[in-house]
Amino acid sequence: MDNPLTKMLYDGAFSCNLESPLYGYTYPWLKNEELCSLFSAKKQFRLNARRGGCEDIPYDFIFIGHTHIPFYRSLQKLKVVNPGSVGQPRDGDFRASATLLDVDEESVKFIRIAYDVEKVITELKLLIDDSKFLDMSIALLKYGKLL
Fold it and tell me: Which of 2, 23, 49, 143 is deepest in the core (most CB within 10 A)?
């Protein structure tokens, strides 16, 4: 545990693995059994869990991303959290999404932060030549979803 963040998050009762990330899509509409099976099957996550169940996964929280949709799910002792997206939301809310974790309470709070979307769009117009990609990016920023 040479990583200072790992030391800060691990006190014997609360565990967090920062060295072996889980890669792949984890959608909020998956059933609990599907989520557990997905986590258990990931070799690079090095979980010592039997396929199909979350009770043997040795972590309290798994933070995931990639879908840009904030969600929280409790699977036995395991809590699964997607903090959402700072700049490409997919849930219909254009504001930046973040998650606050209270390790003492083992609770999660989602927050939204408004920012100057028009300023970001102005900068994107200077950087992106592909009009299709630019239009998609602007829609995501303005409306928080693909149109």
Answer: 49
Structural domain contains residue 42: yes
Give the CA dihedral 15, 17, 22, 28, nearest 10 degrees. Answer: 30
Quick check: helix, strand or coil at residue 147? coil
pTM: 0.71
Q: Which domain holds residue 14?
A: 4-89
Residue 105 lies in a domain: no
Nearest-angstrom CA–CA distance, 113 and 54:
33
Q: What token pair was written down for 72?
A: 């929280």
β 96-102/71-75 pair status: unpaired
Task: Examine residue 40 and state whether it is found in any structural domain, yes or no.
Answer: yes
Both tokens assigned to 13: 């009762």
3-class SS at 81? strand
- Encode pLDDT of 69-122 as tens digits: 898 988 877 788 889 998 888 899 999 999 998 878 878 899 999 999 999 999
- Mean pLDDT, range 38-64, rounded to an integer: 60
The pLDDT of residue 19 is: 53
Alpha-carbon span 108 to 61, nearest angstrom: 10
In a domain, 143, yes or no: no
